Amino acid sequence: MPVVTRFAPAPTGYLHLGHVLNALHVWDAARSEPGGRVLLRIEDHDRQRSRKTYEDAILDDLSWLAFTADEPLVRQSERYAIYEDALASLRRRGLVYACSCARSDFEGQRYPGTCRNKHLREGPGMALRIRFDDTIVRFVDRRLGPQTQQPSDQCGDLLVRDREGNWTYQFAVTVDDWVQHVNLVVRGEDLLDSTGRQILLARLLGRPDPPAFLHHALLMKSPTQKLSKSDGDTGVRDLRAKGWTAEQVISSLAQLRV
To answer: What is the pTM of this model?
Structure first.
């Protein structure tokens, strides 16, 4: 099958060099295979933080950098009916439950299952979670090799819709990758821990074969801190304003693709 991969920025800030590095990996993965395609997805599932101004700037910067997708872009904010259908399939199997917990109600990254057996009624102000059993997920990352993860131990029951009614990243991206026939996910290694839970969720939704994964090294501003759009790190728009050309931006990053 031809490679189908995607570039999926969130419009919660401006494009920075870390995103450009990811784009280089994504487009290279597609263009190195006969018939390979890149999909462009705007991941604006977080309605409180997403801004049209950021989306417009991201699309402008991508065009300036000559990153051209092979299909019209899609926005997660326009795909809520698709997510509802996916959730309904899990609800029919008794895997969905309402949760009243706030993030501050528990420590660490793992949800302890506080509401799992409370049989709370779904409604405004209630989150939704998916029951995860103790399945162990094994996969081979194309860069990092064999991986073993146990999602129930890492994150507990998976949050799929938050208390504000937003679909979560983990849920929306898993549904979209299946519906859009993405068979290779290329992303930074900071998302490696998400892979097992997304593979498990995809199986629960009915996807027989998960996509392949490649987690590339991150662009770091220090040995322990990655570039962050929230910190305003090395924005593409800032470099453009300083007179950089698109070729200079790309060439400055090309040697860092490891």
So the answer is: 0.93
